[in-house]
Specification:
heterodimer, A: alpha/beta, Rossmann fold, 2 domains, four-stranded parallel beta sheet, 53% helix, B: alpha/beta, 20 helices, 8 strands
Chain lengths: 379, 480
């Protein structure tokens, strides 16, 4: 598809686009994934947001060994490795790293890079409970981020600028939602690999460019009769699906499975809710990014997420669930123990749990397990 | 004579106490499946691993056994049960206990700590609980906290009762509250999560963000409301002050003991001091009542050793501070001294730094939150490291052994940064000694011994060279 190819090309040249922008004096705002940094703030400050979502290569994990213990989540160790290496183009280009602090893993990233590199780290806390006091704390964090970005860029984030940025991001969310929802039908016009690629692009490339590409893509998808739904329909969920960690999608596809919906704390940008453009806009951002979104596993409790996964499984008529998590992400590991029980009771479906440390030696075992799981579903 | 008589006598129970507590003791051991062979083994372990020449040590061992009886029998004895996670948040547990109309109405504690001290240190019977915890949802091979595996395993096996409420701080450690969520799913008990964010900027401790105190304070106040609604417990400033005074008695005795521990030679093993340091972290009951006197007796006995120059390692041995001792394995606790190093202190016992003037926060929750921020660990990684470094500067030391549990994420986050910070700012060599405080299956004593011996050799050489260097400088000064 032409639009897909265009997005891929833009994604490929993403770093060059950032370099060009930087040469023109535009500030580059790096941020830690997880969906708690509203890109709207960076855009409204006249800066370019870029998510530090690339991982999957074991070399980055190895590079972290001298700086952090191995008992932390693989993705965050990989980020530490990339950050301290001095060789990662994205870490090298950012003017600040906004770090929403959610759990010990990204706290370790924020602290380690702060100590060992010259990167300007700006942490702000994300509470673990959806309550009024938590909402207020998150809102306070957004105000600090806004002030930081204004100071960095020298641009005042006015209501007008923020509203424009929200409208732009709402459009992006709307289009992502529209494409994703197409997969509810029996005929699945877009593969998970392509959808995930677009979602990743939404964290890297210029929004206006992506929006135009997605509009064309939707038209192409409406006209196509390509059906990707050849095998069992799957829900893919877990902790992190990084850009560059494509093996899980490759293996499922090679085994004849068909992921029709994804839910990840990091790596799949939340796109289900739009931000209200009336009233206090910072409050509107806090409402959508904190109160309305589906919680990750590190919320207390996170039962809302599990209920939501059941809903997704039903809404997208899946035949099975693949739970893909990274090593030492304990909140996901613990959930993966008792969620199959809930899933079975609510839907009659089974679940396959897979774990990765971005180690190439995992692939053989993973392939066997996926093939076996799909075989069991087919029977 | 009952099969447990000798063990309890060894742990300083008096005869009348054994008789009056007979039913409770036997019921506890029945639930735990401990028989006469276990008592004999426990006696041998105590004689081998603890300084039983000291009455204070024996009394503290006895106190832990009494805590075990109370934890195991709490439900059968009709008590309301409230568990709190490790590490506990300030004096919350003690405040709950003080707020209760009668001390027998409630069991409030951290039962997994009690199980470590007793089924671990005394009976060496933790493995079945760990295995049960692994099978029930906290699997091996994933760096799951073994303290939580013990709690889950004990609930699974019916060794400790299902609580009426569990209090979890939900921001310092991620695994604790998540494990509580699992246990809530399995056993249906309610959990009160006390939340905050460890988002302070690097370098900011002891300063803190007022908003963080407001948020944490609101969470603590909410806990107080839950306690009132659910149990009729009123936690206010008066109650808090009473709880502080109750715990204060124990801390006064611990301070008295600590003063002696800094002597050269160090008069008491870390295997013995470990028994004391966990009393305030795991207990609110009998250990808090009887602990101060037991520790005072121990301090007196240890003081006499200091006067006589008696120590557990030779005078002049290199002196190190460690982060924490094993809660469950005395063999590992003795290793450092066996390598010829003196351990006068753990990080917990480092001299406190002067707190800043408190801000006039209007609520009790906020006041407690502010205090928690100042302790460092609840502030940030930097706060934890800096707070410890300020204490280290006040003590005469030759090195630091950062004995840390590999499955504790909040500590793992700090290990390498602690090492570089201490080496850079204070100039003390730091050994990172990865271990497990609760599960002896997760380390090899032999490999730890090798690392410790190498580190000890280096410190001994440093000490000798340092002394020679001082002599040379003194000689040159005299000559000039």
């Amino acid at each position: 598809m032409e639009a897909i190819n265009k997005i891929k090309a833009h994604l490929k040249s993403g770093i060059n686009d950032l370099k060009q922008a930087k040469d023109q004096g535009i500030k580059i705002i790096g941020y830690v994934p997880g969906g708690y940094f509203p890109e709207e703030l960076a855009i409204a400050a006249g800066a370019m947001p870029v998510c530090l979502i690339r991982a999957g290569d074991h070399a980055s994990v190895e590079a972290s060994i001298a700086y952090i213990d191995r008992w932390l989540d693989t993705f965050y160790r990989a980020q530490i490795g990339s950050g301290v290496s001095g060789k990662d183009q994205y870490y090298n280009i950012i003017d600040v790293m906004i770090a929403p602090i959610t759990d010990s893993n990204n706290r370790a990233l924020s602290d380690t890079l702060d100590y060992h590199t010259d990167i300007d780290i700006f942490p702000f806390g994300v509470p673990h409970k959806k309550e009024e006091s938590g909402y207020q704390y998150y809102l306070h964090g957004l105000k600090k981020v806004k002030a930081k970005l204004e100071q960095l860029t020298g641009v005042e984030i006015t209501e007008e600028r923020l509203k424009e940025a929200i409208q732009l991001c709402n459009k992006e969310r709307e289009l992502l939602r529209k494409i994703s929802l197409m997969r509810k039908s029996e005929i699945v016009p877009i593969s998970a690999k392509d959808f995930v690629m677009i979602n990743h692009a939404a964290m890297i490339i210029d929004k206006k460019v992506l929006i135009e590409c997605m509009k064309s893509l939707i038209q192409e998808l409406q006209e196509t009769d390509t059906d990707n739904a050849k095998g069992p329909r799957l829900l893919l969920t877990g902790s992190t699906l990084a850009m560059g960690d494509g093996k899980i999608l490759d293996l499922i596809e090679e085994a004849g499975g068909n992921v029709v919906i994804e839910e990840f704390a990091e790596g799949i940008k939340p796109y289900w809710q739009n931000v209200n453009t009336s009233g206090d806009l910072l409050e509107a951002l806090a409402q959508t990014y904190f109160m309305d979104r589906i919680v990750p596993a590190w919320f207390r409790p996170a039962s809302e997420r599990l209920e939501y996964l059941v809903k997704l499984a039903k809404d997208f008529s899946v035949d099975g669930v693949v739970w893909y998590q990274l090593m030492y992400r304990e909140s996901y590991k613990i959930e993966s123990y008792y969620f199959p029980d809930i899933l079975e009771k609510e839907t009659g479906l089974s679940m396959l749990t897979l774990e990765s440390d971005y180690d190439p030696s995992e692939i053989g075992q993973m392939r066997t397990r996926i093939e076996t799981y799909l075989e069991s579903i087919r029977r | 004579m009952a099969y447990y008589h000798e063990l309890l006598k060894l742990c300083a129970f008096d005869g009348a106490e054994i008789i009056s507590q007979k039913k409770r003791i036997e019921r506890t051991f029945q639930i735990l499946g401990l028989g006469s062979a276990d008592m004999e083994k426990a006696e041998a372990r105590i004689r081998e691993n603890f300084d039983i020449a000291l009455l204070g040590v024996r009394k503290v061992l006895g106190i832990w056994l009494k805590e075990l009886f109370d934890a195991v029998l709490a439900r059968e004895e009709g008590k309301k049960i409230i568990y709190f996670g490790y590490p506990p948040f300030q004096y919350t547990g003690s405040a709950i206990k003080v707020a209760a109309k009668s001390k027998n109405d409630f069991y409030v504690g951290c039962p997994e700590v009690v199980l470590c001290q007793t089924l671990g240190q005394i009976f060496d019977k933790l493995i079945p609980l760990l295995e049960a915890g692994e099978a029930a949802g906290l699997p091996p091979g994933h760096a799951m906290c073994s303290l939580l595996q013990i709690k889950l395993g004990a609930l699974e096996k019916g060794i400790i009762p299902i609580p009426d409420l569990s209090i979890a701080t939900s921001y310092f450690c991620d695994m604790g509250p998540k494990a509580d969520e699992l246990m809530q799913y399995k056993y249906g008990y309610p959990v009160e999560y006390v939340d905050s964010c460890l988002d302070s900027v690097w370098g900011s401790w002891p300063d803190y963000n007022h908003e963080t105190v407001h948020y944490l304070g609101a969470q603590v106040n909410k806990l107080f409301v839950t306690l009132k609604d659910k149990f009729g417990l009123e936690i206010n400033e008066d109650i808090w002050e009473k709880a502080r005074l109750v715990s204060g008695k124990l801390y006064m005795s611990i301070n008295e003991l600590s003063r002696h521990l800094t002597a050269d030679p160090v008069p008491l093993s870390v295997a013995d001091t470990e028994l004391i340091l966990n009393i305030p972290t795991g207990c609110t009951g009998v250990a808090i009542e009887e602990g101060p006197e037991a520790v005072r007796i121990l301090a007196e006995e240890v003081g006499k050793r200091v006067e006589k120059g008696v120590g557990v390692v030779p005078k002049g041995s290199p002196r190190v501070v460690i982060l924490m001792q094993s809660f469950s394995d005395t063999a590992v606790n003795r290793l450092i001294e066996e390598a010829g190093l003196a351990v006068p202190l753990t990080m917990v016992l480092l001299p406190p730094t002067r707190p800043p003037e408190p801000y006039p926060y209007p609520t009790l929750g906020e006041k407690r939150a502010e205090q928690a921020m100042f302790t460092g660990a609840y502030h940030s990684t930097y706060g934890w490291i800096k707070r410890n470094m300020e204490g280290l500067k006040l003590v005469d030391l030759d090195g630091v052994i950062y004995t840390y549990p590999f499955s504790c994420r909040p500590i793992v986050c700090t290990s390498k940064l602690t090492q570089v910070q201490i080496e850079k700012e204070i100039g003390l060599p730091v050994l990172l000694l990865e271990m497990d405080l609760y599960d002896r299956r997760n380390y090899s004593i032999a490999s730890m011994r090798t690392r410790l011996e190498a580190f000890a050799e280096m410190l001994k050489v440093n000490k000798v060279q340092g002394a020679r260097c001082k002599e040379k400088v003194a000689h040159e000064l005299v000559s000039s």
